[in-house]
Amino acid sequence: MSTNLPKVAWIGLGIMGSPMSENLIKAGYSVTGYTLEQDKLDRLAAAGGTAAGSLAEAVRDADVIVTMVPASPQVEAIAYGPDGILENARSGALLIDMSSITPQTSVDLAKAAQEKGIRVLDAPVSGGEAGAVEAVLSIMVGGEQADFDAAKPLFEALGKTIVLCGPHGSGQTVKAANQLIVAVNIQACAEAVVFLEKSGVDLKAALDVLNGGLAGSTVLTRKKDNFLNRDFKPGFRIDLHHKDMGIVTDAARSVGAVLPVGAVVAQLVAGLRAQGDGGLDHSALLRAVERLSGSPVA
């Protein structure tokens, strides 16, 4: 291990957190991890990391603490309280929250951390499981320029597009916009797939040519095979996109932005979840369109 790299504590080893933490290990970082599932800790240890027995143990000696958990309640649960990050991290540590949460939660966390001498960046990501594995994530950051500069080498081990978007909470605001665009894009692709299939067109050929023109997108590139194979193994779960659509619609209301299409897609995501598909990949929006169109749902 290179001794001049900061010691990293990684909290949250799910679909995104596990491959991201492993990319830091590959880049030479010393990574101590904590999560609730033993098999995820075993995976980290097998990759060359250290499994901690508690959150407090994981963060105690860390220079940088990275959190990657599902939503605002989980961020608050690991940050606050006697066993939380703020009580157990050393003064001067840098806390990088890479979860997708409400902008206000990020602002509040930064303020509470400042009182403990802990610096904070909100740094949510886009790119899904594939982007995490390939270390090509887009990372949108909120916080101070100096802290962003300090974290840049670490971010470069995780992603390709790394941008400071403004003060605390700005990263989360941009992530909310990202999730709006992705959901509307997946919905449009899903509607096109059902339209094409009902019209008797060769779906693979159609999606290939569409993706080569103005209708092409990263969403279509990444999700084309999901549509073709009806493979909805989660890279990013409907449950999480439902949470994110709640964040963007609430935040938009608070700033006076009107999201008519986004609101409809938010309801379609909620409907899919109500049908029991919350654990599937967000490309499963196709199933909702199939149900509405009277097509058989695989």
Automatic annotation (TrEMBL):
Residues 169-288 form the 3-hydroxyisobutyrate dehydrogenase-like NAD-binding domain. GO terms for molecular function: 2-hydroxy-3-oxopropionate reductase activity; NAD binding; NADP binding. The active site is at K175. It holds the Pfam family NAD_binding_11. Keywords: NAD, Oxidoreductase. Residues 7-166 form the 6-phosphogluconate dehydrogenase NADP-binding domain. InterPro entries: 6-PGluconate_DH-like_C_sf, 6PGD_dom2, 6PGDH_NADP-bd, HIBADH-like_NADP-bd, HIBADH-related, NAD(P)-bd_dom_sf, Tartro_sem_red. The keyword NAD applies. Belongs to the HIBADH-related family. This is 2-hydroxy-3-oxopropionate reductase. It comes from Streptomyces longispororuber.
